[in-house]
Specification:
Elements (H helix, E strand, L loop, with lengths): L8 H7 L13 H13 L6 E4 H6 L1 H11 L4 E5 L3 H6 L10 H4 L6 H12 L4 E4 L5 H15 L3 E5 L5
Parallel strand pairs: 1-2, 2-4, 3-4
């Protein structure tokens, strides 16, 4: 469930015809976590697909539902801004200075994604260019279920 973005739209398209997966799109990113938490309470095994900008927008909903309920919801986060950051020779671990955050060649969303997940206590793994998105997501799904908490796979590369 989630809102398709440029990176996740092909995934949503391929799942839309699946007989075994019910695709739920939402109107705002914050709704995804509230609905996923409710589905989990009802016995479903939801997965939230969200862009990192939407993750930042949905913080209170994520905190107030999935985190507070210890709902084992895996989160696939598409990583807007990671390619620009790499092209500028930067990593997600850069100190977030005013000079860096105002650079026109850097999308600050990527700089805030992982520190925000860490601040919210959400375990995550980043999948970069040389990683396998499917394997990263599988680990997030297994970790969410075994640790009984939301867990994220940050996909900082194209989903192809």
């Amino acid at each position: 469930m989630g809102i398709p973005d440029n990176a996740s739209a092909p995934l949503f398209d391929s799942l839309s015809g699946s007989p075994s997966i019910e695709l739920v799109t939402v109107t705002r990113e914050g709704e995804a976590f509230a609905i996923a938490s409710g589905l989990w309470l009802g016995g479903a095994a939801p997965l939230v697909v969200i862009q990192n900008t939407g993750l930042l927008e949905s913080g209170d909903s994520l905190r107030g539902t999935a985190i507070r309920m210890a709902a084992p919801i895996p989160i696939l986060i598409t990583g807007r801004g990671y390619e620009k950051m790499a092209a500028a020779g930067l990593t997600p671990d850069e100190p977030r200075t005013s000079a860096l955050l105002t650079r026109p060649d850097v999308d600050s969303t990527a700089l805030f994604t992982e520190p925000t997940l860490a601040a919210w206590g959400i375990p995550f793994e980043r999948c970069s260019e040389d990683g396998d998105p499917a394997a990263t997501l599988e680990r997030a799904i297994n970790a969410a279920r075994s640790n009984e908490q939301p867990t994220a796979a940050v996909i900082a590369r194209a989903l192809n």
